TrEMBL record:
Record's protein name: 1-acyl-sn-glycerol-3-phosphate acyltransferase
Species lineage: Bacteria, Bacillati, Cyanobacteriota, Cyanophyceae, Oscillatoriophycideae
SMART domains referenced in this protein's UniProt entry, alphabetically: PlsC
GO molecular function: acyltransferase activity
Domain spans labelled Phospholipid/glycerol acyltransferase: 35-164
Name of a matching Pfam family: Acyltransferase
Organism (species): Gloeocapsopsis crepidinum LEGE 06123
Amino acid sequence: MSANNALQVSQGFLTAVGTQMFRYYEDHIPRGGPVLVVSNHRSFMDAPILMTTLERPIRFACHHYMAQVPIMREIVTDLLGCFPLEAKGKRQQGFFEQALSLLDTSQVVGIFPEGTKPMVTFTQPDHLGKFHRGFAHLALRANTSSVVSSGQNLTILPIAIASLEEVNTSAVPLKLLSLFDPSEPLFNQSSWHPLVIYRRVAVLVGRPYWVSQHQQMEYQGKQAKEIVAELTHYCQDEIAQLLRQGFY
């Protein structure tokens, strides 16, 4: 399925479910060029929510197991256009290759830096877990290696999804998912995979971030860790502040 069809599917799905969505700070959304969307993540609905917010197709990196489970595989890869991470061992290299290729053609790539945990263990709507730093490395590599060849700078766009009203139920036993990805320790427990359905949700678009020339130079030197930490903290702090706003 084409990327544009993924956007139409997302919009149609939210209409069918009857989810009320309230968008804030839409003026922060870039109207073109390559974009790296960074967001919190608790529900399978987050991808269609973000696509509908930007009104652009977004290519999301998703967990390896999602491309292995029947029905889920068709939804996330065929309908929503997500690109699943590879099996453990090849995961990081495959992620960078696929994401950089997409950004090179001025597409929008979506990352959920909290990883798998908030999706497979129930968390409160205002909870924000620690961010993994892979997205920051991706953003810096895209700029320093001139991967973004369209002549437009890469925009890093933090977005907060604040669930104001939701229904919580269970999907499948986590141990069942371990059959598809035995390398994931989170699946080695007796609980069930939560299923969070938004009824009313606020989406707050954060202030865009652009990698400076100075940061590009530092990323190739001894200060690389500090630059990665700076970008990671910016996005995590921005989303945390927006989440707090969303519940007032």
